[in-house]
Amino acid sequence: MKILSLSAKHTSAIGKSLARRMRGGEIILLSGQLGAGKTVVAKGIASGLGIDSNGVISPTFVLLRVYEGRIGLNHFDFYRIAGPEEIFALGYEEYFYSEAATLIEWPERLKFLLPKEYLKIKLIAGDKNRRQIIFEAKGKRYKELLKGFYEDIRN
What we know:
Layout: E1 2-5, H1 8-19, E2 27-31, H2 38-48, E3 64-67, E4 73-77, H3 84-88, H4 92-96, E5 101-105, E6 118-125, E7 131-138, H5 140-154
Helix pairs in contact: 1-2
């Protein structure tokens, strides 16, 4: 599924709409170049989970931020990770497979640690504030999540 976003506000609203369908335990991969809008989507998801999005920032230097909302939110950023070996030290499984939703920026760094099932959101920056947002669901749970989300935004 693809969506064209024409502004940061629209990109955030897409994240917020997705969050309304989330029930906890989801793993969402946020992929795209620097400045593509990954953190904007994260802010939208946080807002949709009842978390003040003003306090949501990319955890680039701390690797993980944890937020409390309607459901908990674990927000990882692996930009500064050299390889999956460094991720082991974080106790990542405790977060990935918890009752909280988990957002992962720069999931490419996970390599063989990548979960088998997830929802991947890839952002491709265009001119000005345009973003192409591509959704890819791996696993039944995520296909159902994406189907419901698509129905929500179509109506």
